[in-house]
Amino acid sequence: MPIFPHIRHRRLRLNENVRRLVRENHLSVDDLIYPVFVTFGQGIRREVPSMPGVYNLSIDMLLAELKQVEELGIPGILVFGIPEEKDEVGSGAYATDGIVQQAVRAVKQAYPNMLVITDVCLCEYTSHGHCGLIKDNTVDNDLTLELIAKTALSHVEAGADMVAPSDMMDGRVAAIREKLDAAGYTHIPIMAYSAKYASAYYGPFREAADSAPQFGDRKTYQMDPANGDEAIRETRQDIEEGADIVMVKPALAFMDIIRRVKDEFNYPVCAYNVSGEYAMIKAASRLGWIDEQSIVLETLTGFKRAGADMIITYHAIEVARWLKGGR
Fold this sequence. Notes:
Belongs to the ALAD family. The chain has 327 residues and is of the alpha/beta class.
């Protein structure tokens, strides 16, 4: 095999045009999904302290925010709701006039071509902050399934284009698929949070969504960050139950899982660039320690290199601007 000086890898790094020609992975606006937090009220645009640039928005302000999302060509949004009241059974999650249901109707009326994905879970709506119903001081998996499926159906009836169950209950994809199909929504895809870890990276999100558990933690239903093989088992089950897209969450510390899931199943894979990842970059950037644009684009390109087909990121608007040549 020829060796140096016959082989010089630097020849293909000669200038930007050569580097463009041989570049293996490309980050595009087409890869982005923008998460939004919607709340009741009017004229509300409340910044999340730990997530600079991310806001809790009333529906009217959300519609204003989405104008730039559409203009930048970002394909879709992921909607999280913040209710006015919470109860033991998370009834706001599946109420016909719930915050997500109202937001979806408004968004689809204002932006009919925008892809609207809804997060399906109970944690923002339960008084105890857990993702399911509590029985004997623990989350009861099977009792929760019906409410998760009911929530998904209510979102679709409101106009959601896709549902994304994040609760990590066993069997929830099958329960949702059965509920949607029985109601005639066989065409609605499911994006499953398949490998969702019990991660320390979620702290800022829990502030944004007011969803911190009031007792214990979520380690009995979210995955141990030390496990990789388990992610493959979880993903396989979701696919067998009818998931159309599978997700790895968080992304930054689990790029090996993204790669393994993609190699094992060759299925559409979504990476969730979560709140803690976002907050760390924002904090370091504000202190002048890093160049934010370079770090963000490198990180998201890394997710693509690992095998992600799409990326949920709070940086989406900024990234779309950067990719179009602005700062």
